[in-house]
Design a protein that fits this description.
The complex is a heterodimer of chains A (180) and B (622). Chain A contains seven helices and no strands. Chain A is an all-alpha fold. Chain A has two domains: 60 residues, DnaJ domain (Helix Hairpins, Orthogonal Bundle); 85 residues, Monooxygenase (Up-down Bundle), CATH 1.20.1280. Chain B is an alpha+beta fold. In chain B, helix 3 packs across helix 4 and helix 6 packs antiparallel against helix 8. The chains are: A mainly alpha (180), B alpha+beta (622).
């Protein structure tokens, strides 16, 4: 069996390399590729083919996950343009933004003390979603104008919201466990 | 030897031959085996027409282990040699078992050891060995019924099983002489069983409450592809807890010293189970324990006793929906699995939560085995036109320990597998040549709250200034959800040697020892496995050498040196392909290593030099 690992993720799924994609089409192509390359299709094959099948589906899964979520898709598009991200050091320098993030995080931590902690968390999640979609619009405007650095700034900020959402989920789970 | 019969796809020598493959539901309370016969998946019965094999093993001195009903009958006579519910401790450490605080109906050896061993008349037995005895009984039944040797099996595990529990299940199968095609999540198997009759598209929630485990899975079925969107549950919650709740209630009312008497304790438990079953279609039941007054248990009291457990399962459903990023309304079907879903309160609560009538048409005890059999048939190639495919996820997040006892997540739960993640580590001391990596599984932030999977040392790092060595560690999770780790020093390309020590569970060596001690063909299996591992090692060495030679072989070596390295390499390839002896391959690898020693040293020096140069340049720029 053969699998071409040198394609980029958009090429892999035969999609145009742009921010707007049809998730339905992505899902369909993903499942078609999985049907071809999943290790279950090579259960009686030799070890070499089994290994390639595992690597191919690993690649397909990674590609799908990257394009499925908007923040990772936005970042990947920039990487294709040669913009590099260093996860250790790259972060936004926008102090107002960082302060706002800190305040959001504090509100999550203190949700316990609210009358209805779950409602507080839901409200925070809604707020985060709104700000996220604003950032996404900014990103697209900058990306279309080929202002890579500004687009990168939006992506770095988006990553904060991904983490924020995770924190909200964790908090919800912790609260649920307390209820039991 | 099956391992040596490698056939190219589409070149099967006997295309019409029906290959005997089975699905096995290795349950906490009962186990089943099923197979597709004449196009229909059905469970296989024993000589007495029973499909359910109680997951109970009885060890009598000087006799073969007894499994199933006959073993169960021994439980009140000789409780300590009758092992039940072994699945609860499969793949668990002694520490886990103590902290679970359950009533475990058998005794462990006192010896402090990473692998808990149960005391029996056959001496100490691990959970893997006891599970293997159950699997052997099922295998024998299947081979007798189907009239031939099995070529493969799909074994189901709770979706919530972590890496060590999955590995332990696989080890038990190996020990039982089964060729494992795939470990399959139980809820997914159930959905497959239902998928046969109803070619529905949509989102399916599978609620699986068995004897000892609870799982909920959210699946998407579309165009023949089952995609697991999320799973959740609790690997230590099930119908047994209902029995214990009733038993505890009864003991409080009768006599609390019963707890100290194993035999009476078992009687109370079995009376509790009968009461629970009777309450499926009665509003009250009378509990009788020999030598004590009768007690009446009403449906209402029973529901009060188990309410907290049922609530916990509903909470897990809510969480799974959130992980799948869908709403309750998006769920189009709800499937009920596991004997404990017969409890009226469970049905009521599930129906209320999803606001839908759950599917209960297939016998909830058998549905998992039937689904596994269908999957086994497809994997064996018995249904060539079948396009059904299963995309599974990792049930628990995978992370590594960072400074301060915190866990950094590398792969989040519910990521589709197979998946690989690379992480770069660096040294923090000058001249550091080794580094320890601690892999954990779980959702919590603290190391102490997660499950320790493996601890390994990266050794043979080039001794550089702190922070200069970059080690890329790749975590690969295969389609069974099992983890393997490889590491490479980024600058030199040298693969660091990794010794993976399971924090608990059985080491490969221990399993090999068990294999040696067990069946006749164990010897063959082991040799083949050792050979295959050595061949993989040989491939790795050749690959690493080739990629190094491409980079700087000509720059660092004289043509004569290059030639002798290549000769040794070709000799290794030759031996790898022809030898049937591990030692020959080992020797050939060693030869390659010896002849390239000088080359490796030069590469190392070269890299140190370039690194130091890079450093000076940086400082100069500042």
């Amino acid at each position: 069996m053969e699998f071409n690992f040198s394609r980029n993720y958009f090429e892999l799924f035969e999609l145009e390399a742009q921010f707007h994609i049809d998730r339905e089409v992505l899902s369909n192509r993903y499942q078609t590729l999985q049907s071809q390359f999943h290790p279950d299709r090579f259960i009686e094959s030799n070890d070499q083919d089994k290994r390639v099948a595992m690597q191919a589906t690993t690649f397909i899964n990674e590609a799908h996950k990257t394009l499925w979520e908007e923040p990772s898709r936005a970042r990947y598009l920039l990487e294709l343009q040669g913009v590099s991200f260093d996860s250790e050091q790259d972060t936004t320098q926008d102090m107002d933004f960082l302060m706002a993030q800190m305040s959001l995080r504090e509100q999550i931590d203190e949700a316990d003390n609210q009358e209805d902690p779950f409602e507080t968390l839901d409200e925070l999640a809604r707020k985060a979603k709104q700000e996220k979609s604003l950032l996404m619009e900014n990103y697209q405007a900058h990306f279309n104008a080929q202002q890579w650095n500004d687009a990168k700034e939006s992506v770095l900020k988006l990553q904060f919201f991904t983490r924020l959402q995770q924190q909200i989920n964790q908090k919800q789970e912790a609260l649920e466990e307390q209820l039991l | 030897m099956a391992l040596l019969q490698i056939s190219e796809p589409g070149m099967s020598t006997a295309p019409h031959e029906h290959r005997l493959a089975v699905g096995i539901d290795l349950g906490t309370t009962n186990s089943l085996v099923a197979s597709v016969r004449s196009g229909v998946a059905e469970t296989l019965d024993d000589d007495n027409g029973q499909a359910l094999l109680p997951s109970v093993v009885y060890y009598a001195q000087g006799e073969l282990p007894e499994v199933g009903v006959t073993a169960l009958e021994k439980s009140s006579k000789d409780p300590l040699n009758t092992i039940a519910s072994i699945k609860r401790v499969l793949g668990r450490s002694a520490e886990d078992i103590q902290s679970a605080n359950d009533y475990i109906p058998f005794q462990f050896e006192n010896k402090i050891d990473s692998v808990p061993r149960v005391k029996t008349a056959h001496g100490p037995r691990t959970a893997v060995e006891i599970s293997a005895d159950i699997l052997i009984a099922l295998k024998d039944r299947a081979e007798k019924t189907l009239g031939g040797e099995l070529i493969g099996a799909v074994i189901t595990v709770p979706a919530y099983f972590d890496d060590s529990q999955r590995q332990a299940t696989k080890d038990a199968a190996t020990l039982a002489g089964l060729n494992i095609y795939r470990l399959l999540n139980e809820p997914t198997a159930a959905a497959i069983a239902y998928g046969l009759d109803q070619s529905a598209e949509g989102v399916i929630a599978v609620y699986d409450l068995g004897g000892g485990t609870f799982d909920v899975s959210i699946l998407r079925l579309r165009k023949g592809v089952f995609e697991v969107m999320a799973t959740g549950g609790d690997s230590a919650l099930g119908g047994d807890d209902f029995d214990h709740a009733i038993a505890n209630w009864a003991i409080e009312k009768l006599d609390s010293t019963i707890r100290e008497d194993d035999i009476t304790m078992r009687r109370v438990l079995s009376a509790a189970r009968q009461a629970k079953e009777a309450l499926t279609n009665q509003s009250a039941v009378v509990i009788n324990v020999e030598g004590y007054a009768s007690l009446e248990l009403t449906q209402e009291d029973f529901e009060w006793l188990i309410e907290a457990y049922v609530k916990k399962t509903i909470m897990a459903c809510r969480r799974a929906l959130r992980d799948a990023d869908i709403e309750k309304d998006d769920v189009s079907e709800v499937v009920m699995v596991g004997g404990s879903t017969r409890v009226p309160l469970v049905r009521k609560q599930v129906e209320k939560f999803f606001d839908k009538m759950p599917h209960t048409d297939i016998n909830p005890d058998r549905v998992v085995a039937i689904g596994a059999a269908i999957q086994a048939g497809i994997l064996a190639g018995n249904k060539p036109g079948d396009e059904m495919l299963l995309l599974d996820v990792i049930p628990l997040s995978l992370g590594i320990e960072t400074m301060g006892g915190l866990v950094e997540k590398i792969v989040n739960r519910n990521t589709t597998i197979p998946v690989a993640r690379a992480q770069e580590f660096t040294t923090y001391k000058d001249g550091q040549t080794a580094m320890r990596v601690h892999v954990l599984q779980g959702e919590r932030e603290l190391v102490s709250d997660c499950r320790s999977l493996a601890m390994f040392d990266l050794t043979g790092l080039p001794p550089l200034v702190a922070g200069a060595a970059k080690i890329k560690v790749t975590f690969q999770i295969d389609a069974d959800g099992l983890l393997s780790v490889s590491a490479q020093e980024v600058n030199t390309g040298v693969s660091a040697s990794i010794e993976v020590k399971p924090s608990y569970g059985l080491t490969d060596a221990e399993i090999e020892n068990m294999l040696k001690a067990s069946m006749d063909h164990a010897q063959e299996d082991m040799v083949a496995r050792g050979l295959r591992e050595e061949q993989v090692e040989a491939d790795r060495v050749v690959e690493a050498l080739n990629s190094a030679l491409v980079k700087d072989g000509e720059a660092l070596l004289s043509s004569k040196e290059l030639e002798s390295i290549m000769n040794m390499r070709d000799a290794l390839i030759e031996v790898r392909n022809s030898a049937d002896n591990v030692d020959q391959i080992k020797q050939a690898i060693k030869n390659v290593e010896t002849v390239s020693e000088e080359y490796v040293a030069r590469r190392m020096n070269n890299s140190v030099r370039s690194m130091m140069q890079g450093r000076k340049l940086e400082e100069f720029e500042q």
